[in-house]
Amino acid sequence: MTVHNEINICIGGEAGQGLITLGELLSKSLVRSGFNIAVTQEYMSRIRGGHNTFAIRAGSGQILAPRESIDILVALNKETVILQRNQLSPHALILTDAAHGAPAELCLLVPYKDLTSGKFENIAALGVVAALLGIKESVAAETVRQFLGKKSDLIDSNLAALAAGWAWADKHAGSVFRLPPPAEYPGKLMLNGNDAIALGALSAGLKFCAFYPMTPSTSIPQTLARYDQDFNLVVEQAEDEIAAINMAIGASFCGAPSMVATSGGGFALMVEGVSLAGMTETPVVIVVGQRPGPATGLPTRTEQADLDFVLHAGHGEFPRAVYAPGSVEECFWLTREAFAIAERFQGPVFILTDQFIADSYRAVLPFKLSEETSPSVQIENFSGAFYRRFAFTETGVSPRLLPGMSAHLVVADSDEHTEDGHITEDLGIRERMVEKRQNKLRGIVSRVIPPEFEGDAAPDLLLISWGSAKGAVREAASVKKTEGLKVGLLHFRQVWPLAPAGFMEHLKSAKKTVCVESNAIGQFARLIRRECGFEIKNHVRRYDGLAITPEYILRNLSHD
Questions:
Q1: What pLDDT sits at residue 215?
Q2: Is the pLDDT of residue 2 over 80?
Q3: Distances (CA, A) of 193 to 48, 209, 413, 424
């Protein structure tokens, strides 16, 4: 038996072989055993076939990012052995069937066909891996039971396959990759980024979600739909993205906190609706799960290339806020903040995620809301004789009433309008309305979440990141510190608007600045230069569709 502080498990095979089910059950069994995890899913854009992987980095310590080298390769087909062989660590083990022809010296050859029937081989593999890691069979079995739910006709067969795999591994291999037991079991949840966004929206009072399915954001409304009865929530699959954004704006106009979830191609169809929300000053939260473009691009891979698009989406000028979560926890809390800002300043607010964080499961502590005030619809107690929906105010935020909920008439218009909402071509009023809407930006700036800084003051190396690159950058920084460098990290969870007073000193004091992001032209670095006048001269950019890893950062830093 060998004890490892952490381990990286990669499950590979074709779509349709049950590798995602195996990966999710193994991940949940690890979390329920007290371990931390970071999951990376790579899958091709097809229903069956292709080469897909589900990687789980696990350990009792802090796990911040994926790792490239593989310790256990669970190969459900021969192609996986061939394609992943060059990623094996020096002590790696391939777990496969003898029929796949893998080199015997690296393999644990499992007789799956002797253990169970073909459709349960992934569950038998779960039993084998659980035994190798030292996970209790009872924990894995309970995870399988809960996964199957009321499908009682399948429970016995699945549990028999699990038991057969576990017993075979216990007899022939033992706990060869046992992880040290954690000191405590804090009762963590297993969530991915999309799960956390859905839960954050529910906790913020979401009442309406419209969408048209588009990877990687579809699981957000699918998760919400599971709770629609419990939270008096409407989730509507529209005929297209144009309908989805307009439905959400209409629901919000009537007082229901609303959101849409899409990706770049779908958001392209929503852009006119974004301007409508800006003109009518209607709150709406828009989740854009980034993936590589242009056009369909790589629809199941990851990238951070829609920042410029979201910053400038919509014709005309109107304020917005853009958040970019860097962890599953931030997906939850920033979604709540997005709803609060949308309601407070009456307009569109964006959450920028990507395929990596959307699908990356982590072990997280339950979110505590007891001391948090939930965002709420900002409705005024208006007692005047004549209500003006777009009344000029110093802050730019006008008193909001809901149509049909008072004696007052609530009028809105997509054309330029007067204070009471009626169409106008009075150019003086037009000028004042533009300024009124822009005045909201001051309030939004006052609520900007400053970037997180950690590390050494006046560092030799300052690593700058935004969104999902956070964990990989933190791990890369730790490695560079062991080399004797003074290292700092500056991570942005909110990418618009920027408040330079909160970070310019860090940029100026560093000897070398490097911006890490998943796009080809350095969109965030260019944004900082445009808004702050500071040029970040060094870059680590990834745009091959794969997630940024600590190893990738370190390899590219060495080229500078």
A1: 95
A2: no
A3: 25, 17, 36, 44
Question: What span, in angstroms and rounded, lies between the C-alpha atoms of 474 and 488?
Answer: 9
Q: Phi/psi of residue 537, each to 5°?
A: -90, -15
Residue-range domains of the chain with CATH: 6-172 (3.40.920.10), 190-364 (3.40.50.970), 452-557 (3.40.50.920)
Pairing of strands 362-364, 189-191: antiparallel
Flag whether pLDDT at 380 surpasses 60.
yes
User: What gap in Å lies between CA 241 and CA 244, rounded to an integer?
Assistant: 5
Give the span between the Cα atoms of 147 and 17, in whole angstroms. 17
Q: In what order do the strands lie in the sheet with 208-211?
A: 234-237, 208-211, 258-263, 284-290, 348-354, 321-323, 494-496
| Mean pLDDT on 370-396 | 79
Pairwise pLDDT comparison (279 vs 175), residue with the higher score: 279
CA distance 546 to 303: 8
pLDDT in tens, 444-457: 999 999 999 999 99
Per residue, the 3-state secondary structure of 7-53, as one string, reads EEEEEEEEECCCHHHHHHHHHHHHHHCCCEEEEEEECCCCCCEEEEE
Question: pLDDT confidence of 498, banded at 50, 70, 90?
Answer: very high
Tokens 């007290």 belong to which residue? Answer: 34
Spatial contact of 192 and 28, defined as CB atoms under 8 Å apart: no
Query: Across residues 497-518, what is the average pLDDT?
Result: 97
Of the candidates 97, 159, 95, the residue with the CA atom closest to the CA atom of residue 123 = 159
Q: 414, 276 in Cβ contact below 8 A?
A: yes
Predicted pLDDT at 58: 96
Residue positions counted in the chain: 560
Burial class (CB in 10 A: 0-12, 13-18, 19+), 443: middle
Give the Cα separation of 66 and 69 in Å (integer): 9
Single pTM value for the model: 0.95
